[in-house]
Amino acid sequence: MVAPLVRATTGDALLNRQLRAQGGAPVNHKRVYRIMKTHNLLLARRYTERPEQTHEGKVVTMRSNIRWCSDGFEFTCWNGDVVRGAFVIDAHDREIISWRTVVNAGISGSDIRDMMLEAVERRFETYRAPHPVEMLSDNGSCYTARDTRIFASQLGLRPCYTPVKSPESNGIAEAFVKTLKRDYVHVTPLGDAATVLGLIAGWIEDYNDNHPHSGLKMRSPREFISAQTATA
Question: Known Pfam families for this protein (predicted)?
Fold first, then answer.
């Protein structure tokens, strides 16, 4: 049975990944598309005007723990509470390593520093990276604050920043924000911040465990990491 596997934003790639995990036969993606189109189940395409300036810098790396990317997200609950968050994502394996959220406030430099420390501890099981790791972010004050830059250096991280007004230069982080909103935020009742804060950890775990990436040969971040570890 396919129905129990499907959620509002399930596409053919995720469906096939789930079927393979359960020993089922893959489904032809063109057939899935035709059926979904017939029943008006396709997600509406969102048009966003692109800036004229383009950037050719490559964000993806050849190995894990060479470059981490960080960005923020924001959404409003039905009762008016505003939830803001930030996260660290690996530019190679796409795992969300660490994250922070606040309610009705901005992400502070202290939040970013705590998040960076947690990322280093999770990836290296120590308080300092064994080799320099680039930390790519925008020019927000929480990232560019002197205390944050000094602390990053002490952790073995090398801060680097995208050009002003060019979010596409941090494409990996931007892609995660879009996935978070499409697959979780937009399909979940967001009554109040207390409810949402109890859900975000599960969303991120689900993304890390189950969300397929074309750049990872349609594996989830943790499936990809496990495969890399097995062949190392």
Answer: HTH_21, rve
In sequence order, the 6+-apart residues with CB closer than 8 A to the CB of 108 are 102, 142
| DSSP state for residue 83 in the 8-state scheme | E
Indicate if 97 and 143 belong to the same structural domain.
yes
Report if pTM > 0.70: yes
Q: What is the CATH number of the domain that holds 178?
A: 3.30.420.10
Distance CA 226, CA 174 (A): 25
Neighbours of 116 (CB within 10 A): 25
Structure tokens at 94: 């796409």
Contacts by 178-182, CB closer than 8 A, 24 or more apart: 179/207, 179/211, 180/73, 180/207, 181/73, 181/75, 182/9, 182/43
- Work out whether strand 67-76 and strand 82-90 pair parallel, antiparallel, or are unpaired: antiparallel
Let me know whether 30 and 125 are in one domain: no
User: Both 7 and 74 in a single domain?
Assistant: no
- How many independent structural domains does the chain possess? 2
Q: Are strands 157-161 and 133-137 parallel, antiparallel or unpaired?
A: parallel
Q: Which two tokens stand for residue 120?
A: 């280093």
Tens of pLDDT, residues 80-124: 999 999 999 999 999 999 999 999 999 999 999 999 999 999 999
